[in-house]
Specification:
heterodimer; A: 118 residues; mainly beta; 7-stranded mixed β-sheet; 4-stranded antiparallel β-sheet; 11 strands; B: 111 residues; 3-stranded antiparallel β-sheet; 43% strand; globular
Chain lengths: 118, 111
């Protein structure tokens, strides 16, 4: 079955960096666009970033542009999110999701918590 | 401030029908048929319930339906059940550089 498992979350100080990973299984990873979405504690969903199946097309939310970098390794069936210059407002559960159709997220991981605090 | 506007909460009794609205602009909801709806129970990951305005993924109950008129999309849940109590989020493709926008979410309470 389709499975997405995030890892790499944790506590980091403001200004610090963190790299999230998402391991995919149960489908042909290289055929699908992938995305990162986050949810601050008690808040709604916020789309973060999107990468095409080959990695050639990438989108970012304005709130993370210039600080976060999405990437993928199709040979390892893995998606990544490099987060730099972290701020308190980046504190959230970060989900990776498969994009099956245009702007449609048809399978989600369970999320990994990132806490930015001194 | 979310890009798409949803009511903060709706409620209904078991067996009733409810509708959740999602209002955007001609750059997102009104301009494209790429509206999705997600259900999220507390502490769980979101689940896709409707895509491309009105299509249901395999395994989603036909009590869930979607529609769109102008810049407003709607999710209707008929025959409300206790397990439908959850948060619901709409999303849409957007022609802006951000590609995807979400609504602020609606908390559904089954009375």
């Amino acid at each position: 079955q389709v499975q997405l498992v995030e890892s790499g979350g944790g506590l980091v100080k403001p200004g610090g960096s963190l790299r999230l990973s998402c391991a995919a299984s149960g489908f042909t990873f290289s055929d699908y666009y992938m995305s990162w979405i986050r949810q601050a504690p008690g808040k709604g969903l916020e789309w973060v970033s999107y990468i095409s199946s080959s990695g050639s097309t990438i989108y970012y939310a304005d709130s993370v542009k210039g600080r976060f970098t999405i990437s993928r390794d199709n040979a390892k069936n893995s998606l990544y999110l490099q987060m730099n210059s972290l701020r308190a407002e980046d504190t959230a559960v970060y989900y990776c999701a498969r994009a099956g159709l245009v702007a449609t997220l048809d399978c989600w991981g369970q999320g990994t918590l990132v806490t930015v605090s001194s | 401030q979310s890009a798409l506007t949803q009511p903060a909460s709706v409620s209904g009794s078991p067996g009733q029908s409810i509708t959740i609205s999602c209002t955007g602009t001609s750059s997102d909801v009104g301009g494209y048929n790429y509206v999705s709806w997600y259900q999220q129970h507390p502490g769980k990951a979101p689940k896709l319930m409707i895509y491309d305005v009105s299509n249901r993924p395999s395994g989603v109950s036909n009590r869930f339906s979607g529609s769109k008129s102008g810049n407003t999309a709607s999710l209707t849940i008929s025959g409300l059940q206790a397990e439908d109590e959850a948060d619901y989020y709409c999303s849409s493709y957007t022609s802006s550089s951000t590609y995807v926008v979400f609504g602020g979410g609606t908390k559904l309470t089954v009375l």
